[in-house]
Amino acid sequence: MILDEVLSRNARRYPDKPGLVCEPHRFTFREFNDRVNRLVNGLSALGLSKGDRIAIVADSGHQHIELGFAAIKGGIALAPLNPALPPRDLAHLMNNARARAVVLGENYKGLVESLQPELKGVERFVILGSPQDAGLGYEDLIASHPATEPRVQLREDDVLFLVCSGGTTGLPKQIAHTYRSCLATMLNVFYVYGVKHDDVCVFATPPFWGQMIPWLICPHYYMGCTVVVLRNLTPQSLLETIQREKVTTGFLGSPFLPILLSYPDIHSYDFSSLRLVMSAGAPLPAEVWKQAKETFGDAIATVYGQSEMSPMTYLPPQEMTVTGSPEQVKRSRSVGREVLNVEVRVVNERGEDVPPGEVGEIIARGDSMMAGYWNNPQATERTIRGGYLYTGDMATRDAEGYVYLVGRQKDVINVGGKVLSPTEIEDIVYQHPAVQEAAAIGVPHPELGESVKVVVVLKQGKKATAEEVIALCRRYLPGIAVPQSVEFVSEFPKSPVGKVLKHKLRERYATG
What we know:
- The protein is an alpha/beta fold.
- The protein contains 16 helices and 27 strands.
- It has a nine-stranded mixed sheet, with helices on both faces. Strands 4-3-5-6-7 form a five-stranded parallel sheet. Strands 17, 18, 20, 21 and 22 form a five-stranded antiparallel sheet that branches.
- The protein starts with 5 loop residues before the first helix and ends with a helix.
C-alpha cells in the first residue's frame, strides 16, 4: 500500500535530506522514519494494535506528524482533538472514538485528573514533556523501542483518521477516513499543487483541523519534500519561516489570510520563494482576495472542500484575476471547478441538477469521500445519499462548471421567496473602510418571511453608521437585498476553526 511505504522509501532514497523541521528540531528522513518506527513499536508494546484508536490533545508540533505516520504504518486510527474544546466535549469525543490511549501535551496534563473518571476505555496516557505521575513520557517511549520496520497487514477500508467536523451547529462529529479515502485525497491534492521534489511545504494550520496529514503532508512526502511545522501561527512567525526555510508551498485557513495581509511589516520579508499557497475555509470578501493577489501574485489560489471530502473544487492562481473582462473578474469570486477525481453537482431538493445561475445544494462523490460519521449512522444516512455527499452548502454554477458559494443551507436568506446570497451582501459591506468583519443574516419579517440584517465588527478606532452601510448596499445591490437593519458588535461568535456561527446570530436577533 502506497501510504505506509512513503516514509521508509524517503529514508532509503534521501536519508540525509531534511524531512521534518519544527524549530528547534530538524529531522532527516532517516531520523524521522526511525522515530516513527520506534513509536509504532512502542505503542505495540503498550498493547495497541491494528484497529485501535489513539487520541491526541496537544498544541502544534512535530509529534502530530509522527503520530500520523505511526498510525499509517501501524493501522491505528488517530483522532486529533482541539485542546480548546470544553473538557466535557473532549471526554465525549475520546469516548466516542473508544480511544485506548491519549497523547497529551504537558500543558494539558491537568485534563488527565479532571477527565479520567469520565473516560471509559482509555488505558494509557502518553505525555509530551515531563510525565511525572500522570503517564508515560513520549520521548521515553520512542527511545526505549527498536527502529525496525513494523509489518502490519493493512486494507484499504481500514479506518485511519477520525477528524472532527467544524462544530458550527453543535458538538463536532468524528469523520472516519480510510486508507482508500486518504490516498484519493493525496492524489487530488498532488494534482492541485503540482508537487515537485524540491518543494518546501509549511504546515501552518492547527493540527486538529481536518485531515491535514493526508491533505497536505502526504502529497509532499510522496515526492520527498521537506515539511516545516509551525508551532505558533502569527504573521511574524509565518513570514520569518517562509524567509528562513525558503518555503514554496503551504495552506492557510481563510480566517487567517486577512490577518496576514493587514500585518504592517509584511513587505519587510522575502516571500519570493512561494510557488503556491492554498486557502480555504469560510468565504472571504472580494477585497481580501484582491489584496492577496496584489501581495502574493500567482502564488495564491483557493480550493473548496469539507473535512468529509476535500478538495472538491479548485480555482488556479491564473484565474484569480482582479482585472480583465467582467466574466473573468466574476470567476475570481468562484471556488473553481471540480478537481480531477471528484464529480461535483448543484441540485435542487429533488436531487435534480439546477440550471446555470440557479441556487442549489452542492453534492459530490469520489474515492476521497469519508466512510461516514463514527458511531453516528443516522447522521451518515442524512449526509451520504445515493453515493453522493450532501454538503449542506448552497451555490450556483455557470455553464462552464465554475461553482459560486452562496452559503450554508441554513444561512441563505429567503426574502419573499427570493433566495439571496449572504456573501454577495457581505462583499459590498466590506467595501466600507471601517468594516473589519461582516455577516449578513435573515431575520423574521411578518410579510416577506425574512429580511436582511447585517451585523458588523468595526476596525479598531474606526467609526461607521447604519445609514452609511445601508446607503453603500443600496448603490450596488438590488432593492430586495439591501439590509433593513444594521447592528454593530465587538466580536462574532465563532467555531474552533474561526467560522462565524451565524445560527447564533440568528438566535440573538430572532425577535427583532
